[in-house]
Design a protein that fits this description.
Elements lengths: L2 E2 H12 L11 E4 L4 E2 L1 E7 L2 H9 L4 E6 L12 H12 L3 E4 L2 H5 L5 H9 L1 E6 L10 E9 L1 H12 L4 E3 L5 E7 L7 H6 L4 E4 L4 H10 L2 E4 L2 H4 L2 H14 L2 E4 L7
Parallel strand pairs: 4-5, 4-13, 5-6, 10-11, 11-12
Antiparallel strand pairs: 1-3, 2-6, 7-8, 8-10, 9-12
């Protein structure tokens, strides 16, 4: 069964409430391809590797978390950007990308999807008074040592995380997928035992160590694989089209 591209985009925008979220890039349809859609391929980042995999899979739409046209980037269509766009356009594949709307969504968002896989019960936002903060706070059913929780994260995500070990058992957790290391101060203020994100900065180590909490950097890509899969599954069910997720591993 095929549906119109416009109907797919309209529903994705509505479902994620994309128009109401201020972001660093355009959310929604970034590259327009063929007008009918019967197959969606999803992935984390619209790299050339993923685009070529979508071509091989005969996708009509490539759905990603990290798309193009970020604020402050060189707008010229040259080099890497030219090769990516040329491949999409030559194969008539649409690019549909959602950044912050896919981080914060209550059902298919990266943060809630990661929590479900790690067995964290969501309690609320990391910083309730700041609508731009995408992180969450939650709790584990049973307290774990920092080492045990790090092993659990590694088993779930399929890669060994970076652990800065604190002094307490882990029960209360704060997290923000991707490059959310800057929210560690809000997590400390919220009284968490451990803060988890994708990446680490030099000062993150000191913030965790000197404030007595544990910190885990589990990989930007690894922590953000699940929201786009859930969104693709939702759209596939909604419109009775095919959806497959293709993972192009990234160690960062």
């Amino acid at each position: 069964m095929a549906i119109s591209l416009s109907a797919l985009v309209e529903e994705a925008n509505r479902y994620l409430n994309a128009a109401r979220i201020s972001d660093y890039c355009p959310n929604g349809l970034q590259v327009e391809g063929r007008p009918q859609v019967s197959k969606i391929v999803s992935g984390v980042t619209a790299s050339l590797e993923l685009i070529e995999a979508a071509v091989e899979a005969e996708a009509d739409v490539l759905l990603v978390h990290h798309g193009y046209f970020w604020k402050g980037e060189n707008p010229c269509v040259t080099g890497m950007k030219q090769r990516r766009l040329k491949t999409l356009l030559a194969n008539d594949i649409s690019l549909l990308a959602y950044h912050l709307p896919l981080d914060v969504h209550a059902d298919v968002g990266n943060n809630v999807q990661l929590a479900a896989r790690l067995g964290i019960t969501v309690e609320g936002p990391l910083e309730p008074e700041n609508p731009r903060t995408v992180g969450l706070i939650g709790s584990l059913a049973e307290a774990m040592s920092p080492q045990a929780f790090a092993r659990h994260v590694g088993e779930v995500l399929g890669r060994e995380p970076l652990l800065v070990e604190g002094q307490e058992m882990i029960r209360r957790v704060g997290w923000c997928t991707g490059g959310g290391q800057g929210y560690i101060d809000q997590a400390i203020a919220a009284g968490v035992d451990l803060y988890l994100t994708g990446e680490a900065s030099e000062q993150t180590f000191h913030s965790a160590r000197e404030n007595g909490i544990s910190f885990i950097a589990a990989g930007h890509h690894a922590t953000e694989r699940y929201g786009v899969q859930a969104l693709g599954d939702y759209l596939a069910r909604r419109f009775a089209v095919e959806h497959i997720f293709i993972d192009c591993p990234n160690p960062i």
